[in-house]
Write a structure and sequence with these properties.
Radius of gyration: 21 Å
CATH class of the largest domain: Alpha Beta
Number of strands: 18
Shape: globular
CATH architecture of the largest domain: 2-Layer Sandwich
Structural class: alpha+beta
Bound molecules: alpha-L-sorbopyranose
Number of domains: 2
Distance between the termini: 32 Å
Length: 382
């Protein structure tokens, strides 16, 4: 694993838990973790249970005892590490967004395909049992033709103007703001559930343009840089919020919103899909439930039913606890890495992969271009 903070913790925990719940076709062994800060990476290795640590990620890639490289670094390091890993014949799994630009994403896909390694992109929310069940209902045609998808990813963790200018707010490190960080998740869910985007019109906004210098500490917390002189500040050069409309290839109409300025919404990832025969709704903050409405329900009894997706019949749910015993955020990663392990053991493609990463990156690029040009942008032209 390269990197070890918020996502490093989520991934390491998931790898360790896989054998607890699943008979996967391969079992992860935490061989090595890399990070530039020796004290930090040593402590991560100890806490997460890695056998060794390195202060240069290239050393992990050179090692013969390592088969898979997992990238949980800030976004500007994804491409270099993924391409080096794939070129060395290692399977690669990468946090989202796949890359800083569409061009980088394409290079990553090309490198992985050229070596025939398994590649995976960490859109973990696809792996909530209720989301997988929603996919099954749509695939079975239970909603019929899809008319609408509306999705929101609402957060509020940078609303305080004194929250520092961390890497997630600096374009050269992160690529974009709420767009690549959280709109990426909802557009990936829309592609997973509804289909491909055709064209987009968007707006982006940066509400607070200057912040004190600082660094992420743990989770989504940050501290001011210890060495700054006086009240040194820097310019925020990414979006705080974005909103866009989309036409899908299959004719569906989409409405999307992602922001870090929706007070009271800590991690509000939700969607609603309306089809000719019914609707479904899901919200991460109530992630075990799927709300389902069918137009052919008996008159007088029509209404949204709340389905608790913890039964044996619900994807992945049977691996955990008896029905009604709920699961959480971390289980989305366990399910995702279970698929990665099976894919590697059987040398078959897994999803979402770098191809999805390229398609998602094209949508992100179209959102950015549309916001600049104030015009509709066709995703295929990116
Ligand atoms: C911060 O916005 C963040 O941690 C994202 O980076 C994750 O991808 C998302 O799942 C939760 O919020």
């Amino acid at each position: 694993m390269v990197g070890y903070k918020f996502m490093g913790k989520a991934h390491a925990h998931a790898y360790r838990d896989i054998p607890f719940y699943f008979d996967s076709d391969a079992t992860p062994v935490l061989q090595g973790i890399a990070g530039r800060d020796e004290a930090g990476v040593r402590e991560a290795a100890r806490r997460y249970g890695f056998a060794s640590y390195e202060t240069d990620w290239r050393r992990l890639i050179d090692r013969q005892d390592i088969d898979v490289i997992d990238i949980v670094t800030p976004n500007n390091a994804h491409a270099e590490i993924a391409i080096a890993a794939a070129t060395a014949g290692k399977h690669v799994v990468c946090e989202k967004p796949l890359a800083m630009t569409l061009d980088e994403a394409r290079q990553m896909l090309t490198a992985a395909q050229a070596q025939g390694v398994v590649h995976m992109l960490c859109h973990n929310y696809r792996f909530a049992p209720a989301v997988q069940f929603a996919k099954r209902l749509i695939q079975e045609g239970r909603l019929g033709r899809i008319y609408h998808v509306r999705a929101q990813y609402l957060q509020d963790w940078i609303m305080d103007p004194s929250f520092p200018l961390v890497w997630r707010l600096r374009k050269e490190v992160t690529g974009s703001g709420a767009l690549g960080d959280i709109a990426a998740h909802i557009l990936d869910l829309a592609r997973f559930l509804v289909g491909e985007f055709r064209e987009i019109v968007s707006a982006v906004e940066t509400f607070i343009e200057e912040r004190p210098l600082g660094e992420m500490t743990s989770g989504l917390n940050a501290s001011l840089s210890p060495n700054i002189e006086g009240n040194q500040t820097g310019q925020v050069d990414v979006d705080d919020a974005t909103a866009f409309l989309a036409h899908f290839e299959n004719g569906a109409l989409g409405v999307f919103e992602a922001t870090r300025f929706a007070a009271g919404n800590r991690n509000g990832n939700r969607f609603e899909i309306n089809g000719e025969k019914g609707s479904i709704r899901w919200s991460l903050e109530d992630m075990n439930w799927l709300e389902v409405y069918f137009t052919d329900d008996e008159p007088g009894l029509q209404g949204f039913r709340r389905v608790n997706c913890t039964e044996e019949v619900h994807p992945y749910a049977g691996a955990y606890w008896p029905a009604g015993h709920i699961i959480g955020y971390e289980h989305t990663f366990i399910n995702l890495f279970k698929e990665l392990m099976d894919g590697i053991a059987n040398r078959r493609d897994v999803e979402p992969n770098f191809e999805d990463g390229v398609k998602n990156q094209a949508v992100l690029a179209a959102v950015e271009r549309s916001a600049m040009s104030r015009q509709w942008v066709r995703v295929a032209e990116m």
